[in-house]
Design a protein that fits this description.
Elements (H helix, E strand, L loop, with lengths): L3 H15 L1 H18 L5 H14 L4 E11 L2 E13 L3 E6 L6 H14 L3 E6 L9 E5 L1
Parallel strand pairs: 3-4
Antiparallel strand pairs: 1-2, 2-3, 4-5
Helix pairs in contact: 2-3
């Protein structure tokens, strides 16, 4: 007998598998950027470099995508800004911090929920090996 929990797990795993190739390409782009710059720069430099690297790979992405904050039909604050939104389905949140914190994952999950994106990547460029600073989240 399949439970609701089993169906939710299958849905999450299906989303992960469906976007696995694209997330692999995005992570590859992050590794390329990190191998060029290394750790220690501002997030903005990594973001601009990521956008260029994604273009080189023919991956459609926008940066600093605005998400308006609407509560019950009323705009209640400044727009949220998503670092990179890839192929209208993967949110990429870039960081250049000493350590990723739960609040960073919460931020990514919020962006994913608001954009109805099934997959998100959190990338911390302030690591000796950037792969150690990558978190993949699935809704």
């Amino acid at each position: 007998m399949t439970t609701e929990k089993d169906r939710d797990t299958e849905k999450r795993e299906g989303s992960m598998l469906r976007e696995e190739g694209l997330t692999h390409e995005i992570i590859g782009a992050a590794i390329e950027v990190h191998s060029f710059w290394g750790p220690g720069l501002y997030e903005e430099i990594y973001e601009r470099s990521m956008m260029y690297e994604l273009r080189l790979r023919n991956i459609n992405a926008v940066n600093q995508l605005s998400i308006p904050l609407i509560y019950k039909g009323e705009r209640v604050g400044d727009d949220l800004k998503v670092d990179v939104y890839v192929e209208n389905k993967i949110v990429v949140e870039l960081k250049a911090v000493t350590k990723l914190l739960p609040v960073h994952e919460g931020q990514l999950l919020t962006y994913m929920r608001l954009l109805k994106a099934p997959v998100g990547l959190l990338v911390n460029f302030n690591e000796a090996v950037v792969r150690q600073g990558v978190r993949r989240l699935v809704l």
